[in-house]
Each structure stands twice: as structure tokens, then as C-alpha cells.
Design a protein that fits this description.
The chain has 360 residues and is mainly alpha-helical. The chain is 64% helix and 2% strand. It has one domain.
């Protein structure tokens, strides 16, 4: 919205600053962060009054989790509110990629909210049927992937960009939309599975989101793409503003989610943020790089898949408990120890993902 102030600029005044994506990204970060600090405590107090018993705790989970009983959930509302408000304020609202990512985030947030609401009101951990959640997610992802393909340059439409290879493209044709669906829904559910300890999911989401924001800025700038030999996707640079807002909103939430958490993100936040990461990757043609940058989420999801398949086949377990962060809890690792080490791994993977821009 602030971008339209450039209409009053003569090219050498304050209004001219709003032309620059980097300036507006900084504004989006600060706005989202301040929003989180200002509205965080009132929202948590409201959630505590409305939920009374808070998020139900799994009976088969680690014993240390029972001390968290009574902690409210749906803290993702704080993240999403700050993220939406800040992005709408600072991004160009005539940019289709901004709207694709925003709507995917909001839609997955609504799915997560419905699930959290069912869990809180029924006081059980089942929530909305998995089939309904998955089906709704696939529909949203299909629309987003189709829209992204429609706005991509003709030379990149329905193409899969391969990292590490200059100008390498794989034509997926009609399979691009199903592939985009897998990326977006997979990212949403992988982040959801990771959200099991205080602060565990939000920092890796911020790191991955910030990394994808840098990638979006690079692939949306012709000079950078020419120098680095990556594919130019006009307009994606605006997604840096969304990513900056995500980072600010995440910090604002982490202030209250740091151990011991005053509020849980819930599916409201985890599904929305995971969907957002997947949507950014599809828009910027960096779907494979998302698997590197978000490698922690991939491992968390794979640990569940491996555990379920192996148990059905043999009746035994590979991990003491899945997702894998619970395995380390069962081995005696303290919760902060797991969280911080996983943060470090996320940072290393983010640097590896950024390296794909240069290594070609």
C-alpha cells in the first residue's frame, strides 16, 4: 500500500524510498515485529480466557509435556495477523505472486484454525478429520500452483528448474500442477509435524522464509540472474517483503513461545507458514531448493513416514517416538538442547540452499 506514495515523488524526496524493495522489506520487518510485541500479550490473555483448559496434551507423548497442560493454542493468529497486516501495508498490491502467497497462507491458516478449534472445544487431540484437512489443502495448493504457472514467463511455464545446473529445465507439462500441490501440501504438513516443542518450528520457519526471500529477490532481479546464471522470474522480488514480514512476525511470536511457552503456535500457524514456504518455492521456481533449505522439515516428515511404514510391516519401531524430535526427548535430551541444535541445523541448511545460487 505504501508503494503508491511513490506517485507523489519527484525522484529525489522521501517518497522515492518506497520504490525500493529493500526499504519496504525493512519497513515490513519492523511493522510485523512491533505488531507482535503490542498485540501479543492481549491476544494470549484472550486465548487463555476463551480456551480455559488450553491445548490438550497427547497421552502417549513424553511425560515432560504434561507440565504444559493449560497452555493456550492458536498463537498462530498473532503471526498471521502481523504477517498479513505488514505485507498489505508494504508490498505492491498489484503483484500476483504476493497475492498467491498471501491467500495460500490465509487458506491453510483457516484449515489449521478449524483443527485447533475442534481440539480445544472437544478437548481431544484428533481435531478435524485428516482426510478433510488433506483434501482442502490439495485444492488450495492446486489453485495456487495453477495461478503461479499462469503468471510465470512463457519459457518457464510448467518447467522445473534444477539447481546446480545452469539453465537446466525439466518440462513437467500437465504434471506441474500436481507437483506444485505436493510441494505446498508437503511443506505445510512437514512444518506441522515439526511443531512439537517450544520454539522448535518457528525459528527454522523464519530461517527458511528469510532464505527464500533472498532467493525471491535475486530471481526477480535481471542483473542478479544474469550474473548468477539462474532463471529470471519477473515480479518475485516483492516476495522479499512477505518474507521480511514473516521474520518480524516470527520474532514477535518467539518472544512468547520461548520455553516455557506462554502460547502454542497450533495448526493455525504451522500449516499456514508451511504452506507459505511451499508457495514461495513454487512461485520462484525453487521447489527443489526448498527441500534443502527446509531439510529439517523433510527429516521430521520422513521420520513419521518411516516409523509408520516400518511398524505396519514388522510391528517394530525405528525411532523411540516420531517425529524425530520426540525420539531425542526419549533418549534424554533436554527440550532446549533439542530446539537449539535443530536451529543450528536449519541455519546450516539455509546456507547450503543459498549456495545453490552460485554453484552452477
Amino acid at each position: 500500500m505504501f508503494y503508491w506514495l511513490t506517485a507523489f515523488s519527484d525522484g529525489g524526496d522521501l517518497f522515492n524510498l518506497f520504490r525500493y524493495i529493500t526499504f519496504r522489506a525493512g519497513g515490513a520487518f519492523v511493522t510485523a515485529l512491533v505488531f507482535g510485541f503490542v498485540f501479543g500479550r492481549p491476544l494470549i490473555d484472550l486465548l487463555r480466557r476463551k480456551q480455559k483448559k488450553g491445548q490438550p496434551i497427547r497421552d502417549d507423548g513424553p511425560a515432560t509435556h504434561f507440565v504444559k497442560a493449560g497452555t493456550p493454542t492458536m498463537g498462530g493468529l498473532l503471526i498471521l495477523s502481523a504477517l498479513m497486516f505488514s505485507t498489505l501495508l508494504w508490498a505492491r498490491l498489484d503483484n500476483p505472486y504476493v497475492w498467491i502467497v498471501l491467500l495460500v497462507t490465509l487458506a491453510f491458516g483457516l484449515i489449521g484454525f478449524a483443527d485447533d478449534y475442534a481440539k480445544v472445544t472437544k478437548q481431544n487431540t484428533k481435531g478435524v478429520s485428516g482426510r478433510i484437512r488433506f483434501g482442502a489443502g490439495l485444492l488450495i495448493a492446486a489453485l495456487a500452483a495453477f495461478a503461479a504457472a499462469s503468471f510465470h514467463p512463457a519459457a518457464l511455464t510448467n518447467q522445473l528448474a534444477l539447481p546446480f545446473f545452469k539453465d537446466a529445465l525439466l518440462n513437467l507439462g500437465i504434471l506441474f500442477v500436481p507437483f506444485g500441490m505436493v510441494v505446498i501440501v508437503g511443506a505445510a504438513n512437514a512444518v506441522n509435524l515439526t511443531d512439537g516443542l517450544d520454539g522448535l518450528a518457528i525459528m527454522p520457519v523464519m530461517i527458511a522464509g528469510g532464505t527464500l526471500g533472498v532467493i525471491a529477490y535475486v530471481v526477480g532481479n535481471y542483473n542478479f540472474t544474469e550474473y548468477l546464471g539462474v532463471h529470471f522470474v519477473p515480479g518475485t522480488g516483492e516476495l522479499l517483503i512477505f518474507s521480511a514480514a514473516l521474520f518480524g512476525a516470527g520474532l514477535g511470536f518467539l518472544w512468547y513461545n520461548a520455553p516455557p511457552a506462554a502460547v502454542f503456535m497450533g495448526d493455525t500457524g504451522s500449516l499456514a507458514l508451511g504452506g507459505a514456504l511451499g508457495a514461495i518455492a513454487v512461485c520462484t521456481k525453487h521447489e527443489i531448493v526448498l527441500a534443502i533449505v527446509g531439510g529439517l522439515f523433510v527429516v521430521e516428515a520422513l521420520s513419521v513416514i518411516i516409523q509408520v511404514l516400518y511398524f505396519k510391516r514388522t510391528g517394530r519401531r525405528v525411532f523411540l517416538m516420531a517425529p524425530i524430535h520426540h525420539h531425542f526427548e526419549k533418549k534424554g535430551w533436554a527440550e532446549p538442547q533439542i530446539v537449539i541444535r535443530f536451529w543450528i541445523i536449519s541455519l546450516i541448511l539455509a546456507l547450503a540452499g543459498l549456495a545453490t545460487l552460485k554453484v552452477r
